[in-house]
Amino acid sequence: MARSDEVLIITGRGAGSVDGVPVVREAIRKLLTALRRKGVVESVEEHTPGSFVARLASVRKLVEAPRRHGAPPADPPVVDPAQLDGLAASTRAGLRQLAERALDSLGAPRGESYVRDEMVRQYALLAGAVSGIRRGSTDRELRLRDLIAAAIEAYDDES
Q: Is the dihedral of CA 109, 111, 114, 119 positive or negative?
């Protein structure tokens, strides 16, 4: 989300671990594998014997990724279209741009009802990422605008 493609994760070799077993390194390896399955991490490579390089998935891939089988997915937040009216004008404008790009990428019409429905859908997808921040908080809107901008940039990068 910070618009970084790769992350260097330094685990150390585990040389000081009990019996020389690298506990932290193995825990991070398992975590990265799980994040790769979930689509958060695109790829992982061993950088050195004490570090990994993880390539992060784009925001667009995260939003459009199909749900995986296994544990039942959390229900997306129920969004009343009227909730969009409570957002700042700049946030609604960003959601509109994001909705238009999403519709364009699908070759869907850009009629007002389609755009509004897509705005609600995109808001529902992104609202989960800001769910821990109190509603009505300026931090929540700022974080939401950052996510919207990153998603728009991901669509623009792929066009």
A: positive
Q: pTM here?
A: 0.53
Measured CA to CA, the distance from residue 131 to residue 128 in angstroms comes to 5
Token duo for residue 53? 């390089």
- Which of 143-146's residues contact partners 24+ apart within 8 Å by CB, and which partners? 144/87, 144/91, 145/90, 145/91, 145/94, 146/1
User: In the chain, what are the domain boundaries?
Assistant: 6-57, 81-158
Q: Which residues contact 90 (CB under 8 A, 6 or more apart)?
A: 145
pLDDT in tens, 81-94: 777 888 889 999 99
